[in-house]
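Q: What would this chain look like folded?
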Amino acid sequence: MVKIISSHYELGQKKESLKDLCEINKDWDYDRLLLKTGIKNRHVLAENETPEALSIKTGRACINKSKNKNIDGIIYVTQSPSLPLPTRACFLQDKLGINKNSFAFDINQGCSGFVYALSVANSLIKNDCASRVLIICADHYSKYISKRDRTSRPIFSDAAAAVILEKSETNKIGPFIFKTSGDGGDFLTVKNGNKELYMDGPAVLKFSLNLVPEATHELLEKANYKKEDIDTFIFHQASAVVLNKLKKKLDILDLQWFNQIENIGNTVSATIPIAISILQNENKFSYSKKYLLMGFGVGLSVAGCIIS
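A: My prediction, written as structure tokens:
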């Protein structure tokens, strides 16, 4: 049995609004873009910031919120590290002062990456390989996106988010579900010598509306739950059009649906742990409730689980 005991998130220092982008791009339609994305404000890393620096700040705050500060391992989720090696988790282990009798590794996954990390941490704890695991998700997509890219720039933000998992007598994480459509990998990728993000919005939307509802129904069946049994559905915060269409297709009630994209944006792997942190900060994350998490996107991939 495993539960989340602590969480924290940090956004990039530089605030960038949709109005700012429309000032630069006079041919952009503000109202149309806002309706489509649902995002007024985003945050990007400043010139003097790195995703690792933001991760250190986030990880340190997450550990400080925990009564027991002993960490047995760190899992770092990112697709946009400052350096390809050494392993960023090893770098963070040192900077966060985590003892040397610990594991540290990266997961190169995006929008579904947090759930992947949860599944690994959950297994390590259940198999007595660890008692307490720190997961940090951080992405720096803005470095791949021009301010004149109307498809992606109004959507993606830079952020880091962390959670700590530990053994529990009463709470659990699972079951899990995974789906992969690698043949759609070119719909969301980095091109031109790893310098430019390319996203085929309609193709990614089509994928999301097909596999995400399918995975959600299968996960509920696997857990022997009905939709009504779930207190909150926390889906990857992709964009307003994606979230609205998924909510409608799955017929989920407003009071069951998490949506905090307006002033945060799509933070890739960090969206779901940010949601958990927001709920914890508002005293709305209760261990007596059930949460269905669903990450989806780059890969193309889907990963979901239930926290109860």
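The longest strand covers residues 2-11.
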